[in-house]
Amino acid sequence: MRSEGYLLKIFLVVYLLVFFGYLLGPLIVMSITAFNSPSFPKMTPWECLTFEWFDVLANDTRILNGIKNSLIIGVGTVILSVILGLAGALMLTQIWPKMRATYYTIVIAPILIPGVVLGISTLVFWDRINVMLGFETDSFLNNGIFLTILGQSTFIASYCMLVFIARLQRFDTGLTEAALDLGATNVQAFRKILLPFMKPAIGSAAVLAFLASFENYNTTTFTFGKFPTLTIELAQKVRYGINPSISSLAFIIIVLTVIGALAHEIYIRRQQLALANGAPVKAVANGFKLPRIFQGNPAAIILVLLALGGFSTIWFAQVYSPQECILDVREQKRILQQQKIDEIRQQRLQQQQQKKLQGPDIFGSDKKAPSGSGSAPQSPGKGAFGDIFAPKNLEKTAPDSQQDSKPKNPGKGAFGDIFAPKNLDKTGPQENTTD
Amino acid sequence: MSAVQILRNFFEKNGIGLGTFLLVAVFIWVVILIILPQLSMLDFSFRHHLPPPEMGGPKDTYTIEHYKYLVLGAPGADTSYNVVDLGVFGRTLIAAVFVTILDLILCYPLAYYLGQSKGGGFIRVLVLLLIIPYWINEILRAFAFRIIFGDSGLINEVLLTFGLINDPIDFIRANVALYAGLGYAYILLMIFPIYNVIESLDRNQIEAARDMGAPWWRIHWRVVIPYAKPGISSGCTMVFMLSAGALAAPQILGGPSSLWFTQIIYQWFNQGGNWPRGAAFAIVLLLTCIIIVLSMMRLFKVKIGDIGK
Fold first, then answer.
1. What average pLDDT does range A127-140 have in this prediction?
2. What's residue A422's pLDDT?
3. Domain-by-domain residue ranges, chain A?
4. Of A403, A418, B75, B142, which one's alpha carbon is 20 to 30 angstroms from that of A356?
5. Which chain B residue lies closest to A5 (C-alpha atoms)?
6. How far is CA A291 from CA A45, A221, A347, A394, in A?
7. Quick one: pLDDT at residue A292?
């Protein structure tokens, strides 16, 4: 029995590692690529630590415009869907029991309906209303922001409603009845009793709605019109050309998320601590008692470490310049390229020599190969290796090296004139003489 | 009770102001945002594809040409059925089922572990770690998988470095990246429903089964899974519907030769410009998904009210 439990424990640890590796690995990899210098986001090979992608991101007007649109739509969606969700949840508690199942099915359905379908139906419906009312095609009914807010609210309101239902289940209706008995009007009872009770749920529903709106793609992609949101811009960027500035955006979002989650965790912990110690919540919520927070609260420690790390990174980014390293890597690449070329050249020469040794007279192969120092290449401008080493080829194989260093002479690659056709003619014969 | 009386009771209970607000808000949501757009889309899918000036004119009659197109293909095509679109449709559904099963297998053990442990700091951290990826943008999550599975991505580079392969494996074309990305996107929707149900399972039941000498798999098969069925089916429903209706992940991670059905709909709307046909295809997708989900619920005897708990 004991060995079985031991096995189970090992299995559990391995499983947890695999699971959370799958869950967090991609995010970590993506974050790391934001700091690597190649222009395609990669983790391997690691080249240089760089912060230039954050600069690229900060100067990307389409992304910034997308963020603006996302914020506008997000705020609109939060307001609309919190109101609708609250009304929907309150209605559920009062609706005629026979209708309840049908009603619940209808208001929960938007969660299950594919987002694509919601987007299309919103677009089609308002377009036809527009035609029916005889408005121009650019009226507000066809406005991207209007349509997107409506389309997103359709299903985000359902999320909000679920949050409210969960909270309402713990509501003691006796409180409202007591208030009514004591002479409060319905509106007073609602405002003074129910609404304060629902306040935390309204807060979390608003956060949920905003995040859901911010990251929605399926519905928005049909309704955005002339107001692309951040997600739409990102999708277009990812589909038609990747560069690590997207990774840097992802990194920022991940860091914000982690900080938000930790702050929330700390907040909950502090409340629990306060309640456990018998203190009123307010007493602890205001004063900042560092030592106690740290006791048995890893989240707070992580948060502080994260903040320190963030500050030192920003400081480091100001001081550090990756230019030297990038040049270094370029140099290394050049050397590597050179080595490869030398190798190929050596092989070719060996082959030629072997052919010669095997009997050039019989096969006459030396007529084709440039043998000896004097023989001219068959095609002018091309060396013994065809056009493998023509300047343009180098541009293809080593695009990185082209970025900064402008070629001094037109027609010559970044490597100066090492690979100019004539060089081959020079080096070829020299090596020939060694045998 | 007549309808008028119900209404009067309702207003008596809530007062005029609040009662009107509730009715209006629910009416806007249910009728204007949910029901009418769906009906309008359904109606639209039976219309001819016409330029805007001719809409509402004499040519604007009902037709089933778009549904015909999905089944039979363009008139005068070589094949008697629309092999391409139907093939994509079938493949999408099968792939969505596959993703759902993958997620279920992956998530059930963790949901059980989380649900049966007594809480504590470690569990809280695990739950926090679970939630964090969910707040990251869908596009960015897909992008991360592209970095990992790309031709010069992490996996290929590592395999190449260790000499396990000679040429990069095309994970994108093989759809590995797509399945991994889709499964990843909806993990949380599978875990939490199951976790919520298992959390309420009385540990004594498991203890009792164990005392009676049941092996672990039998405990799960006879005690835990039957109890967790509402959670499992609710998670499966959501993952299935969302992955069948996914658009971003297939666009970013899908291979060049394999389309997702939503991508075809998207093309009819954005590139083809044939809205009625796109609407018809969307209706087909919606109805098929609903039928599949309802029949699964019937099969496993779960009610729709259990979803979303």
1. 76
2. 46
3. 60-240, 243-320, 330-432
4. A418
5. B216
6. 43, 49, 70, 61
7. 52
Domain range for B80: 65-306
- C-alpha distance from residue B67 to each of A32, A137, B229 (Å): 48, 28, 36
* pLDDT of A78 strictly over 90: yes
Mutation target for B interface from A112, A194, A198, A242: give the one with most B CBs within 10 A.
Answer: A112
Tokens of A403: 């970025």
User: B278: which chain A residues are within 8 Å (Cβ-Cβ)?
Assistant: 120
Q: Name the fold adopted by A60-240.
A: MetI-like fold (1.10.3720)
Tell me the nearest-neighbour CA distance from A113 into chain B, angstroms: 7
Indicate the SS3 state at residue A386: strand
For chain B positions 127-156, those within 8 Å of chain A (CB to CB) are: 128-133, 135-148, 152-154
B197 is a domain residue: yes
pLDDT tens, residue by residue, A193-215: 888 888 888 888 898 888 888 88
What is the Cα B163 distance to its own chain's centre?
Answer: 39
- Name the pTM for this structure: 0.73
Contacts of residue B156, Cβ cutoff 8 Å, sequence gap at least 6: B149, B150, B165, B168, B169, B171
In this predicted complex, what is the ipTM? 0.82
Q: Cβ atoms within 10 A of the Cβ of A55, count? A: 13
Q: Confirm whether B20 is domain-assigned.
A: no
pLDDT for A79 equals 92
- pLDDT for B284 beyond 60: yes
Question: Is any Cβ of chain B less than 8 angstroms from the Cβ of A20?
Answer: yes
Among A112, A235, A239, the residue with its CB nearest the CB of B241 is: A112
Average pLDDT, chain B: 79
Confidence of residue A392 (pLDDT cuts 50, 70, 90): very low
A84:B28 CB<8 A: yes
Q: Which of A166, A179, A149 is nearest to A73 (CA)?
A: A149
Compare all CA atoms of chain B with the CA of A88 and give the residue at the minimum distance.
B26
**pLDDT tens-place string over residues B90-114:** 888 888 888 899 888 888 888 888 8
Test B145 with A26 for CB contact under 8 angstroms: yes
> Is B265 at the interface with chain A, CB within 8 A?
yes
Contact map slice: A 60-89 vs B, CB within 8 A: 83-84, 86-88
For residue B145, how far is the Cα from the chain centroid? 19
- The CATH number covering residue B82 comes to 1.10.3720.10
> Tens digit of pLDDT for each residue in A250-290?
888 888 888 888 887 777 777 777 776 665 544 444 444 44
User: CB-CB: which of A114, A185, A254 is closest to B244?
Assistant: A114
- Which residues of chain B neighbour A43 with C-beta distances below 8 Å? 147, 154, 157
Q: Chain A window 313-352: which residues touch B at a Cβ cutoff of 8 Å? A: none
Three-class secondary structure of residue A12 per DSSP: helix
